[in-house]
Structures are given as structure tokens and as C-alpha cells.
């Protein structure tokens, strides 16, 4: 009778869930992270389909010695130094494990996608290089999860230091497509954190670096992802015209076999950008494209790790309609967004947009209540992006209004010393 692997289970439960802050990582989330990690580190040459059942077999001790790539992924994701730390032990010789190899090797992404990606990013030669890449990639995945629960002010120095170290390693030892892809991801995360701190000059530079690194991988999916990220940043920074140009470029770079999640995300970003330019026809056309793509079945393909489904389309629809001035349509969309859809910082930004819609309908007090809650999150996570949006919302209201009294008091605390 197999002995349960309590070390592996405990290691998983020590990691915070990326979708439910404060809760432990689920088996499904660990399975998704494992598949994404292997795909990323292999440069798209290895597509796996680990599911909660496989994680359960590892934790129940049915499988005591997973394949090397799974052990490497689990060490990186669960921050373990050795296989033994995760309770894995090599079986005695002559006693092979009963592993469902067909299930492990099947592709959840489609054989055609896997075959296409193989031509873009060759595998790293040599086990040592693969281990180094896995070690560099692991912290990036952790930092992405931490970004949902840790202030950008505290997380950014760690990410910047990781970027500096990874840059030295890749430029000196691992000048390969896979090395550049790992480095591009770190640079993209550094750009996001800089933008969250309202350091737009650094954010632009990091995004540009991420695109340059992605281009060196000859991986159109990664290039498109980074280009679209810069385009959305341009829109959010008040340059929608430049943002549309970049988003158009990202759409042209997207491979014909690109996953539906990628197309739904890109179309949603296009909708927000066109709405910022008050281009009504293009906004609605992009929203229709996003809905159509989100309705197609299919798993996300790295670097789009998470599925972009209808619920997320509605969130961008609300943002686009609000910027377009369609207050009635935006109000309906905001009401349709699930309360648990996004993490605290994205939810705060969404509440500010909702506040504008409510104020546009004359419900200034309700809008200010949402703004106060968003400001609380902005301060808690040191997000200057959020606090500046709240200030912009207040500036859009009458200078003297009793409905904004609580919001004014909350904004005043930004200028008070705290010990």
C-alpha cells in the first residue's frame, strides 16, 4: 500500500493560491503551473497535460519518482532545493513504477500547436543548462503570484535584482532562444511593476527590452504578447493612438495557430484602446471579436498561461464602454462581472472605472464609496497607478460636494506622515 507523500502536500499548501489570496494552492493550480513551467523552460518544445489526478497520485505516493522534468518544475514552483525536500525517492532497481505515460505525454494544447512551436524555440542542450533555466524561471513564477498579494514597492527590488542576475547568466552562458524567452518574461514583469509604481519611463524601457528579447527567440507568440503588453501600457498611460499602433502590430505578429485565449485578450485590449479614441465602430467590432474568440474551446498557450474566458471579456467590455461614454451599457457590464473575478489591484482599478459610470448617472455618493475602497487597496499595495486614478476621479467631480466628503478625507491621508 503506497505511503502518502506528506512533504509534497505540505509544500503545495504553503504556496498561496494565485486566484484566491490567503488560500493554499490547489491541485489544479499546481498542475497548471507545472504544465506552464515545462512549456516555458523548454521553449515550447515540451507540451504536457498534468492534471489534478496526477498531482493526487504524487501526493498519495502512488508515484514516488516522477519524470525529471516534472520534478524540476515542482522544485521551482514549490521552492524546494532537492527532490527529497518534496518527498520524492528513487524506486529500487528492478521495480519500475506504474506510470500512466500516455496521459502524461498527451497534449492538452493540440498536436498542431505543439508541432508549430517546436520550430520556433529549440530545446536547451545539456541537463545543466536546463537546470539553470528552471532555477531562473521558478522565481519569476513565484513573483507573479506574489504580485497579487505584495506591494509593488517591496516586490520590485527583488524582481529587478533577479533580472540583473538572469541577464548576466543568459548573456554569458545561455545565449539561446530559451534563455532569451526566460529573460523576456522577467523583463516584462519588471515593466509591469514599474508601471504600477507610476515609473513610466522605466516601464517603457523594460517593455521595449522584453520585446527585443522576445524577438531573439523567434517565437511569434512571445513577441506578440510583449508587444501587446506595451500597447496596453501606452493606452493606460494616456497614449491610445500609439497603443492602437502597437496592438495592431501585436495582432499581425500572432501566429495563425495562436490560441483563442490570446485572440480574445488582444481583441479586448483593442476595444479599450479604440474606446479611448472614441472610435465607436472599432470598439464594438473588437468587442464582438473578443466574445467570439472567448467562446471557442481550447487551453491557453504560453506565455498566455491563464484562460481568457467570457467573464474576463465582460470585464474589458465594461471598461471599453465606460471610456466610450456608453454609461448604460457599461453599468450592465459592471453588474455582470463576478465579484471574485480578479485579484485586489485589478479589482481596485475596475472599481474606479465603475465609479466614473455611477457618477455619470448622478450616483456620486456610490461612486465615491467605490473610490474610497479602491484607494484603500492602492495604499495597501503601494500602487501609485491606483491612487492616481482615484485622484483623477475626484478631479472629475464638482469641487464642492458633500457626497465626496469621505473620499476627500481619504485622499488627504496620502499627504500625512505615518509611522
What does this structure look like?
This protein has 419 residues and is mostly helical. It is 66% helix and 0% strand. The protein is built from 20 helices and no strands. Helix 18 runs parallel beside helix 20. The longest helix has 21 residues. It is globular, with a radius of gyration of 23 Å. The termini are far apart. About 8% of the residues have low confidence.
Could you give a quick summary of the protein structure above?
The chain has 419 residues and is mainly α.
Q: Count of helices?
A: 20
Evaluate the radius of gyration. Answer: 23 Å
Name the structural class: mainly alpha
- Low-pLDDT stretches are 94-127
Task: Give the tags.
mainly alpha, 20 helices
Reconstruct the topology from this structure.
Layout: H1 6-14, H2 27-41, H3 52-60, H4 68-78, H5 101-105, H6 111-118, H7 127-146, H8 152-172, H9 177-196, H10 200-215, H11 220-236, H12 240-253, H13 260-276, H14 280-294, H15 310-324, H16 327-336, H17 344-360, H18 364-380, H19 384-395, H20 405-412
Helix pairs in contact: 2-3, 2-4, 2-7, 4-7, 7-8, 7-9, 8-9, 9-10, 9-11, 10-11, 11-12, 11-13, 12-13, 13-14, 13-15, 14-15, 15-16, 15-17, 16-17, 17-18, 17-19, 18-19, 18-20
